Amino acid sequence: MxxxxxxxxxxxxxxxxxxxxxxxxDERSTIRRVAWFVAxxxxxxxxxxxVVEPVRVRGDSMEPTLxxxxxxxxxxxxxxxxxxxxxxxxxxxxxxxxxxxxKRVVATAGDSVGIDNGRLMLxxxxxxxxxxxxxxxxxxxxxxxxxxxxxxxxxxxxxADSIDSRAFGxxxxxxxDGRVLTRIWPLG
Length: 188
Known about the structure:
single chain, alpha+beta, Umud Fragment, subunit A, 7-stranded antiparallel β-sheet, 4-stranded antiparallel β-sheet, 3 helices, elongated
């Protein structure tokens, strides 16, 4: 903005009221910027609380699918509209410790689930799982257990090194934080 100074007959310098107007405008502009910043932060916090959230994988129980240190994005909305399906990779709290864990849903309500010589048995049939690390699982047997209503049975993909529903039982669906959407780091 260019200041205009009017010539006066008494050669007195002109009084310029423009700075006071500019100060008021700058103050309103600053308030607007702060309000937008606060609004963006509130929206991001709401999205993180109710829609999607980044989480980091701790431990190797989901290898080779997910390595320790991987950063995932979880969808917190899907299970409000549907129950988990077999094969969904989810994030929930370990019922024993309360810490976040990442596991795969292998059985849902009413399913009979067990492990026979290291292989997943679902409703009496062996299930092929090409994503599972089954080394050191030969000769391992578990179950069968029947998953109660409103629960899911969770296993890690690294079955020999996973503390999962074999240790703490089926998990209530309403305790699931979200479904893994994607891995954002490391990419691959």
